[in-house]
Amino acid sequence: MIIDSEEAGPVPDTGPSNITRRTVIGGIGALGAAAVLSTGAAAEEAHARDPKGVDGKVALITGTSSGFGRLIALTLARTGYEVYASMRHPHRQNAAPAGVLRRAARGEGLALEVVEIDVRDERSVDSGVRRVLRRAGHIDLLVNNAGIFYPALLETMTIEQVQEVFETDVFGQLRMNRAVLPAMRSQGEGLIVQLTSGVGRIAFPFQGAYNGAKWAMEAMAEVSRYELSQSGVDVVIVEPGAYPTDLIDNARILYRDYLRRLSRDDARRRAEYGDLADRVENELQEPSGPVPQEVADAVVRLAQMPAGRRPLRTLVGADTELLTEVNAVHQRVQNEIMGLAGYGDLIGVRPSSGPRG
């Protein structure tokens, strides 16, 4: 669903029970291999329409060991992209998910290669991006997908624990952008897709670090879009709703670790919240939702649009409907303020000028 370029109608009074953190959180998780290896609708449609339409296009995706990242990598490869699927430790703890991608590439004849990138490590990011540029010569599409989540009372989280979330979710995408943008600007075109979440537009209790990271990602992506608008490089945001992935399974592991690491002082703080502290664990219930392939299909559709035609924000999932008005009002006010501040010329993205279109 693309909403930021249109006026949104009134939001129906559906009552507070229809929207919870679990119905709009979205994020990065994992799927079973069988589900992951199903071909997406966008890839099938694109191949049937123009099987050679993206020949020569190169995509780099972070966080492809599971979930949305893996689906996006496979869907783009099936659409015709030369794909570099990055993850941490593909020869060690992520050897199995890396093997899933490699087997799919061999079995289907896909131009897909697994590369090692830890978005928390600047050397790893720079080395991985240099490898892709050496092999492919250019990068047309970067999808920032890597991220982590777990709930907690914000007062009981240490600075180091909050930094851990920001290190992956916020600084990770900044490292990737800094590594890729010089090449994109030099070639006069490129697209960065930032996967955030529905909670990048709202706030929930027990989500202080995660909400803060997603809000920061949204703001930085919007700023980057303005600053790059005259270069031919486009930046867009995809905001998924709730999808059945292993995001919550991973969050349970991190939450148990958080409880084990509570200092005596923070355990006392937590106890003083009484019953409210126990409600944190409600956030660890697995959401039910539609097929996660919808998110990968949305990324493909954005990638196939020309620069200057893509919306800044794209909500994905029927459960994000209540956020359409938030995005529409924000965009209207933001554009007005940009004009008053003398930056109206940076709102629109200039069509790419590079040799590959």
From TrEMBL:
SUPFAM superfamilies tied to this protein: NAD(P)-binding Rossmann-fold domains
Superkingdom of the source species: Bacteria
CDD domains noted in UniProt: 17beta-HSD-like_SDR_c
Family from the record: Belongs to the short-chain dehydrogenases/reductases (SDR) family.
Protein name according to UniProt: NADP-dependent 3-hydroxy acid dehydrogenase YdfG
Protein source organism: Amycolatopsis marina
